[in-house]
Amino acid sequence: MSIQEKEQEIIDEFAIYEDWMDKYEYIIELGKDLPLIEEKYKTEDRLIKGCQSQVWLHAETKDGKMKFTADSDAIITKGIIALLIRVVDNESPSDVATSQFSFIKEIGLQEHLSPTRSNGLVSMVKEMKLNALKAVK
After folding, report:
1. Which of 12, 68, 113, 123 is deepest in the core (most CB within 10 A)?
2. How many domains does the chain have?
């Protein structure tokens, strides 16, 4: 499944919910299914700067594909990073680096977050792309 297809799947899922309280609940549910980062990777260098809550992101490349794991001390943030990972996990570094993450705008996520959470979202996307750029050879 391409990045665009994964994004469309998320857009379709969010279209089911009419109000943002239901969408937040769905994001929280997604966070509960997040593939958690190993404790040994919960280090200062994997902590995403610019997030209100603590968010750790671990990225590695296996067989030419990016693999991401993460964790956060805030349940809503955990759901947001789970959405981002779902879109770019198991994709090539160059595809991750050039991904537009257009589903964020399509579902109205950024405008329904507090300014600090919105900044955190931007920081998470930036960190994923930086990891991908480092892996592009």
Report:
1. 68
2. 1
